[in-house]
UniProtKB/TrEMBL annotation:
Protein name: Transcription repressor MYB6
Myb-like domain span: 9-61, 62-112
Biased composition range(s): Basic and acidic residues: 189-201
HTH myb-type domain boundaries: 9-61, 62-116
Gene name in the database record: LOC107421590
Chief site of localization: nucleus
CDD domains assigned: SANT
Length: 287
DNA sequence: AAGTCTGACAACCGCTGCTAA
DNA sequence: GTTAGCAGCGGTTGTCAGACT
């Protein structure tokens, strides 16, 4: 179907941003804050499309960005999150403070892919290459509904019904506590099947707990938060029980709104902290 | 020194999902 | 229920610097 262009292309600059454009954008957002990207260029006196402004701000001009090389811990965390979430770069970026989805995506394509291949792992499936290149297995997995990593999004399983604990590879995932409302839907069954299926594969030691998600009242949920049946919601209340290096990195990724200076106490108590005292990533709300 | 290749990354494009009218 | 507008996402492309021949 497509959509009309977001702006008059004939009257917009393209290509690399100049220092002057950067400064205009920074100055404008410093005064007016983020929001309404469509009207921002005109208001800020920029001959750019709103999407371009948003991208430039989010990926390069935001003050909280961490520049520089990725650490080994970040590498491993990205790999683990990718194995769990697939190419959901924005979700992965949400767990890495100061990193952007674009940055992680580029880094994945240029570094981590090769790193995994050198380890003999398929970057998409995180399985041994000799296993995934086996025609029958590959075909079966690719076409099967069992492997949710090959689908555009994880299975739409109510998060409240998952208590999946990624454990060291010796522990069968069948032991995970799946509760059911009694009427098992096809989707749920598929997911359960997939877990059983994957239980017989080498499991990454993710040290991530996808625990029971406590009920969130409307007041504690961002108005723009999407359905719980999303990959984001699967990790919304992620805690890191093991103080390993990667877990510590992730645990520090916690409260972006605090990092951005929105840490008036009420905001964080209500929006970032769950009843267990763990924090989750949160985008700042528009003022 | 010049030309070519390669890797890294910034930016663009098209699409999706959400929301309000 | 439908439509349009918007923000945001992920795939892809373009550009440039450094390595290599």
């Amino acid at each position: 179907m497509g959509r009309s262009p977001c702006c008059e292309k004939a009257h917009t600059n393209k290509g690399a941003w100049t220092k002057e454009e950067d400064q205009r954008l920074i100055d404008y957002i410093r005064i007016h804050g983020e929001g309404c990207w469509r009207s921002l260029p005109k208001a800020a006196g920029l001959l750019r499309c709103g999407k371009s402004c948003r991208l430039r701000w989010i990926n390069y001009l935001r003050p909280d960005l961490k520049r520089g090389n990725f650490t080994e811990e970040e590498d491993e965390l990205i790999i683990k999150l990718h194995s769990l979430l697939g190419n959901k770069w924005s979700l992965i970026a949400g767990r890495l403070p100061g990193r952007t989805d674009n940055e992680i995506k580029n880094y994945w394509n240029t570094h981590i892919k090769r790193k995994l291949i050198s380890r003999g792992l398929d970057p998409q499936t995180h399985r041994p290459i000799n296993e995934t290149t086996g025609a029958s297995i590959t075909t079966a997995v690719k076409s099967s509904r069992l492997d949710f990593r090959d689908r555009s999004s994880p299975p739409a399983l109510p998060v409240s019904e998952i208590n999946l604990i990624m454990k060291p590879k010796t522990e069968s995932i069948e032991d995970a506590n799946f509760t059911s409302s009694g009427t098992t839907t096809e989707e749920e069954q598929d997911h359960h099947d997939s877990q059983i299926h994957r239980a017989h594969e080498p499991q990454p030691n993710l040290e991530l707990t996808i625990g029971l998600v406590p009920f969130q009242s409307e007041s504690t949920r961002s108005s723009s938060s999407s359905s719980l049946n999303t990959a984001e919601s699967k990790l919304q209340w992620t805690s890191f029980p093991c103080p390993s290096a990667t877990a510590m990195v992730a645990a520090k990724a916690v409260c972006l709104c605090c990092q951005l200076g929105f840490q008036n106490g009420e905001f964080c108590r209500n929006c970032c902290q769950n009843p267990n005292g763990f924090y989750r990533f949160h985008r700042p709300l528009n003022p």
